[in-house]
Amino acid sequence: MKVHTVLPGPDEYAWTFGGEEARVTIAPGDVVELFTEDCFAGRIQGLDDLPSRRITYPYINPQTGPFHVEGAEPGDTLAVHLIDVRPARNWAVSTTVELFGALTGTRYTASLQPPLPERVWRYDIDVVSGGVEFAALDSDHRVRLPLEPFHGTIGVAPAAFEVRNVLVPEAFGGNMDSPEVCPGATVYLGVNVPGALFSLGDGHCTMGEGEACGVAVEGAMDTVLTVEVLKGTFCEWPRIESDEAVMVAGSYRPLEDAFRIAHVEMVHWVSETTGLSVMDAYQLVSQAARSRIANVCDANYTVLAKVPKTLLPEVEWMGGTHARLRQVAAAYTSRGARA
Amino acid sequence: MKVHTVLPGPDEYAWTFGGEEARVTIAPGDVVELFTEDCFAGRIQGLDDLPSRRITYPYINPQTGPFHVEGAEPGDTLAVHLIDVRPARNWAVSTTVELFGALTGTRYTASLQPPLPERVWRYDIDVVSGGVEFAALDSDHRVRLPLEPFHGTIGVAPAAFEVRNVLVPEAFGGNMDSPEVCPGATVYLGVNVPGALFSLGDGHCTMGEGEACGVAVEGAMDTVLTVEVLKGTFCEWPRIESDEAVMVAGSYRPLEDAFRIAHVEMVHWVSETTGLSVMDAYQLVSQAARSRIANVCDANYTVLAKVPKTLLPEVEWMGGTHARLRQVAAAYTSRGARA
Amino acid sequence: MKVHTVLPGPDEYAWTFGGEEARVTIAPGDVVELFTEDCFAGRIQGLDDLPSRRITYPYINPQTGPFHVEGAEPGDTLAVHLIDVRPARNWAVSTTVELFGALTGTRYTASLQPPLPERVWRYDIDVVSGGVEFAALDSDHRVRLPLEPFHGTIGVAPAAFEVRNVLVPEAFGGNMDSPEVCPGATVYLGVNVPGALFSLGDGHCTMGEGEACGVAVEGAMDTVLTVEVLKGTFCEWPRIESDEAVMVAGSYRPLEDAFRIAHVEMVHWVSETTGLSVMDAYQLVSQAARSRIANVCDANYTVLAKVPKTLLPEVEWMGGTHARLRQVAAAYTSRGARA
Amino acid sequence: MKVHTVLPGPDEYAWTFGGEEARVTIAPGDVVELFTEDCFAGRIQGLDDLPSRRITYPYINPQTGPFHVEGAEPGDTLAVHLIDVRPARNWAVSTTVELFGALTGTRYTASLQPPLPERVWRYDIDVVSGGVEFAALDSDHRVRLPLEPFHGTIGVAPAAFEVRNVLVPEAFGGNMDSPEVCPGATVYLGVNVPGALFSLGDGHCTMGEGEACGVAVEGAMDTVLTVEVLKGTFCEWPRIESDEAVMVAGSYRPLEDAFRIAHVEMVHWVSETTGLSVMDAYQLVSQAARSRIANVCDANYTVLAKVPKTLLPEVEWMGGTHARLRQVAAAYTSRGARA
Fold first, then answer.
1. For chain D, domain boundaries
2. What predicted TM-score, i.e. pTM, was given to this entire model?
3. Pick from A228, A322, A328, C286: most CB atoms within 10 A?
């Protein structure tokens, strides 16, 4: 097992999907231990570090990568399995940002109203016991939320020669902000360019469904992953597989279009994999879905169609890729490389 | 404890919210045992009972009620606590319906494409062991889904002299299609007319998030409920409280507007009840929400903002109404009135 | 020719479509001279008459009617031809209203931002020369806009037993806010209840496309109209015919759904009337449409598909109704009843 | 006056905004005579040339350019004035395309329904008399539409390091599909990269509002333009100026967000240029707008806020750029360079 360690320096992050040279080349089956900065590039640490003072657009949401995966060609699918995602620091932050978020006018849902105030919340992170502590700014209330780390952003170079900003989710993945991109999950992304050129970042210690204020509990992460390439199979939209469920991420606007994308793709995936007719798959998905809103604040909104495997015919999804990557993860973990 | 039994005859259902005379008058604290027909008025039982043959619009989705609640005046809030919701038959049905559903053109998302075929699926319901059995139409696959009965439709007479069709969800409640309207839940609805005039129906044995095909596993229900009136408090949008969580239902289009309604109302509710500032409540709800898509197929779409009580300051919600109604439920159940 | 004069007293307006008793009964071919109050019921006259002080919801947008049209039965279509629409006063007003309008958060596009200020603008109306004079509030700028009077609201009782607030546009017509509902236009509305029960109001002296601030230049109107009933023909959505164009109004959300409704209905209407195939009609409408955004601020948004008759096959639309009603108008006008 | 002639060879078109090397460098005040291919790269000429047979995505909508404009730096605004846009051939085509268009399910408004058929319509173009002749496919109907040539696509390299496909409209311009981009118009685009790198194409002989079927009457164009750079002024969204009106293009989804963007930007532009307060500008724009739907079919939808100059205070817009470019156009035309 080849294990890569990737610790980017301050100037070594990617700010786009596509359009960047590969920083690291890896092979299917390799394991990568990597560090991701938080979405603010670590520049917001205290309550006075307002985003408008510390951040210069578009230098927000740095990504670790891109990784060139050997053998990945356009028309294939890249499978990225997250072995571990763990906060790298004992603190994290959230903020409000002017003209950003679901409950305010934004650049795209434009309004003449005055903006909401910018504020910064700092959270204490307790990795050992699994806590994310919220402290109110205007009173002394504190409460502990569960630590549920995941990557808000993961994607490959887009199709059609496009280069997209790291704040955008679309068919190439990107800033989907889904809590399902967590340890134990396999993310499937259709490959558009040689080597796939995937990158990831935007670690979240926890987040509510929809990311209402536009910013999760943002933290740097120590992440371990492995990859596989499915030759000759192309996922139009990102798929995610966990031990328990199969999922499709749809990212567009309005939010019902994100829902439609995810669920139409799920119906076809179920039909093709299980042999159910399209209408039977439509019916079964309609009754069995445990879908989730991911974000209602980004450049595109994201909904995840999610169906528990136990409610679907017992089949091997994506050619058994997830199980194989689970074995790589188990082999990695058992060698004690990481406490 | 006064217990009413309401078993409507075939011509005794309501087809609107508002605009109907009260059929039954009840008092706060009374218990009502009632029957609700399925959304097809029981007319679809087999695979050949296509909706276009058996149903004449607008005679779809019959509601049991309306109930006049003594003492409920405009400006108050009605609390309806569901003590039990139980399938009344050992079968239920789902269908596709022409120009209805989330993954097809509809009357409102109009398209020139040919419609999808109409089909009927019949499910076996096992109340004892809690199963809903799906049988594919085009192959011999069968799978058991969990029985999770709830009422897709519950509401009061609307404001502004309106009368709305029973397929519509809006501020008065109505056809929200949320699985959270289940046994153990308290639904809060702002009162717009004397007596509130609430009704309910549209029992679902189970349903996927979003009700993608437009029709859940539709079944008649035996339901038990009790009510309370909160004087001088008005909920702009429906709220739901369970032992574990507080929720707000937003119903409009596009789907992001349903999300916005639900979450803005939740932020204000949390702020007003807990004393957190609006910005702190915004932040906390943003990280703690476990919100759910209810429907993406009805005349308005519905999203439920949902926050676990344990992640919020420890307070009494809605003046402790839910706990009091839980006690009524316990008293009712302990007297053995219902096996 | 029978001529009715309808001058409602202060308590004789309708606040809903549906749910009101007919105030006047008329026959096809009759002419009605009527008065409509402005949307503020005449209560806003000066700059200090802020809506929040003068208006109590839902007493906004009073409608003159409803009119019972003899012989109109469900399944028919009512044709209302506007012979004249003329400002009844030499002033009109516009305002901003809290949480209303296209460029602000609203009740349905909910936001946590502070609302915009309420303001009132008073316009001088010059009927003789056709001017609407804007006077800035915060500087001394004045400019003259063209007088283009029309009715923002016109509709019939809705289907499915519904009663809708007068601020709502939908399939029954209602608050569409389209400048095409002007002198010389024939509005076709599908009949849902015996007598059709149509009413109208919400006179606008002029309005920009989309009614961005939510309020046009609102004025009382002296209006003259005549009606006809098309037996056995039902318009699913409102149609409008002028000497130059045929139009369909779609009203829903999001705005693209309003566009889809209007244009799908237009394609089918063109195909059915001209004998062009659906695909040819789709193509021709796609190149010939001169469609207009009506409102982006009401409970539903409205788009009008509009196609010049000269770009379509030369046919008789709606059985020649418009031409016949033009003759009634000419006969009325020539008798000098109205200078 | 320096006049450039740009006639791209088959392999010399741009398929993205951004990400391409400049093909031609021009200076402010220069005139460019150029050729643009139609959106199908000339590959669809007859009724059997179905897009699925002749076009390989993403080789659709070729752009002439990009042009490097001397002196244009990020933060400036590029003004492109269209002196002439004239069909280069005596024929043009339109088609339906699978999963594309406003009245069908698409890749983003996903549906399980069967797609509409692919068809090709060929139009005769008569430049001399100004006609575009439609011939029905399924009957022998023919009708002449007015020739109104414009460029559906014009834009600069995007901000934030992005590269966008030529089918996308957004803040950088692109595939807005607005008939206002026609001879006599000046298009203002905020500059994001040195030299601006603008390109244009997608000539339309005519098009209905909204481009319902997704494809206009597509034709190659002979176009003449000139440019100017406004130093230190940045347009967030594209602006267009004609002799009669000022306009802003908003491009996003849902369609109401495109409307909001365009009109909020217009209100601010009017306020800043005329000295009217923001609230007065909001009011005046609300009554004076003659806005137009551009497209409801592209990757983003586009609405143009449009206000006649005569309804606004008499001021010089954009520092008088349009008038200066009109003079360049007049000088060019008077020298008889182009009949």
1. 3-239+319-334
2. 0.98
3. C286
